[in-house]
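Chain X:
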Amino acid sequence: MKLKYYKCSPTENMTILIWDTVPKHQYVEIAQKLMKENHIHAEQVGFVTEMVKGEENAAVRLEMMGGEFCVNATRSLAAVVSFRQKDEGGIVKLETSGLEAPIDCVVKNMDKAYQKEVGIYMTPPKKVETITISSEEGRVEGTLVAMEGITHVVVNSGTVKERMLLYHGIRKQLKGKEMEALGVMFYDERLNYLEPLVWVRETDSLFWERGCGSGAAALGAVLASQKKNSIKKAIKQPGGTMDITVNWEKGAIQDIYLNGEVRIVSEGWLYI
């Protein structure tokens, strides 16, 4: 099988976008092969398709390998659409798995044609609540942020000795909940540093990601909820910095805006 692809780096959260039509039942098998070190290698794979909702002005649709919603893959696709159209940037409307409604991405050109600054507007989380996580190393306080397409648990990294034990404790505790994907966000408030661990149900993949857009948004939601106020913050992650703005009005989060650089690092053909 020969497939057209783009590979993007949104804060080093390496993302492969497949531009050719692939049967949906093959998504998982193909993604698992591509993510391996002996192939193109990335942290996640998305498949570009025609729109299914028929939304006017939507460019294309993104189907993630596990049917989840991925902020960085969506931002990557917006960058590629702008790159292919050789435009001056602007609003790129996309459909994506994990979301009911299309999403607007704001694309700005940078010095190179393959570099874009891409912002994305996100709806408020469905739920932000404090939870106590029980694991083999004891009890840890965290905050659960339920979003469309993914659920995150944000914890203070300084309170966790064995991170994988905590992850397995969270998986066990949330076992009965329907989640396309789960992120555990380890946050060091003193350093303003976020380390994302992300699991996708359909592919059963688990990665320490270099950057996680929805995880940064979840952290922003937690901080705004704690302060009960709007916040604007540059969140550091292993792969770079993402800017988060959370709008708090009338006692609740109204919207979240996430912004950062996306680099298109490769395009071409791959073989499976």
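Chain Y:
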Amino acid sequence: MLGKIPRLLWILVLGLVLRLINVNQSLWLDEATSILAASKLSYSAIIHQFSPGDFHPPAYYLLLKFWIGIFGSSEVTVRSLSVVFGVVTIYLVYSLTRKLFDNTTALIAALLLATAPLHIYYSQEARMYILETLLVVKIMQLVITIIMGKQRIFTWISLFAFSGLLLYTDYLPLAIFISIGLYLLIFENKVFRKYFFGWMGIFIGLVIVYLPWLPILKLQLAVGTVVKVNAPGWWEALGKTDFKQLTLVPLKFAIGRITSYNKILYYSLASIPVVLYAITISRSLFDWRKTSLIWLWLVVPLGAFAVLGLYLPIFSYFRFLFVLPAFYILAAVGAQSLGKLGRVLIALLVVCNLAASGIYLAAPRFQREDWKGAVEWIEINSQETSAASIFVTDGQRDPYYYYSKNVPSFGPSGIDLNFDKIWLMRYVQPIFDPEDTVRNQVETVGYKKVAERDFNGVTVWEYIR
């Protein structure tokens, strides 16, 4: 009976199980911001009040609000939306790869994505990155269907709908349309000319659909300029193109977000899957005519934003999760062309994926900031005394709001120093308070530091007087 279960189903179940392990870990800053916006604001307020101060379009937040309205806002339920998106993406990668190549290659690509440490990490995060990956894969699948001449009117409608949703989900993935355009013009010019009015209809329709967003996009750019002036450290931390950021792309694609204090050991072990992927992916070039669309999917966004990243802080590996499926599809194609050697390489890559994913899932230090633990510690040690938590900037308080029940918090303005105990939150202090103004203010009025704790990046200092 078990032997009759399709291999794809086993892969999907494996992908689901891996994405559910430790899905209840603490929320980090951006997740808490997403959840509070989605749960506290109306649909209209998300668009017109929250979005101008954010750096993303609102589609994910609107979907999350709908999801929270049904399932609630616990860590597990809010992240389960991304878990669903992640598993669906595995299936779509299988479907797309099968259209272009064959069933075995499709199963290999799906297995690599199912066990991929970076994809697992973001499938457990209440942010938009896994949604945009799903949308890009679906758009590519629909484009391939049209190129193969198997389209119907519903295919064009679906392409327009998913493309429109991508427009309102994030900005960097829009580079995929450049990849598609280049492929049509260079490799499928006959298809482009044959369906010219279809492509132009999609393009014009998307421009019209996007026009209402332009005023808010303008406000977001203005906010970004203010951040650059007022918090240059934060601006630089967002990621400009340099040697480190460029090397992190293949490294993190291969092993995810794990690291080691022993850098020699880390790079020695990490080089194993990187080399294996280099061998299999480069091998796919031998079938250039069939893999050219996938190569453009991988290379064009990375290349375009590597150049733009010299001037703007936009080049960080996690922003390119939407090209990760192309990375694995090319590895699957290359490995499949190598026969028995390819099967050995795939087995080794799956072992590497599972090892890296297992380390992330088992080791708390590779997981997210432990705001849950920090707030729990603060509240346990604030019983039977008056206490408050103080932040160096108001913009970093959302995880505290999410978890705190009893101990109030204050930003740098309007600090109340009439408590017996102060919890000074050192989170992002070097960036937003480089002069340590808040700490000096606390100590000037007589508070004495008596303890400190670090919760996976959330550092808390305890003061009494």
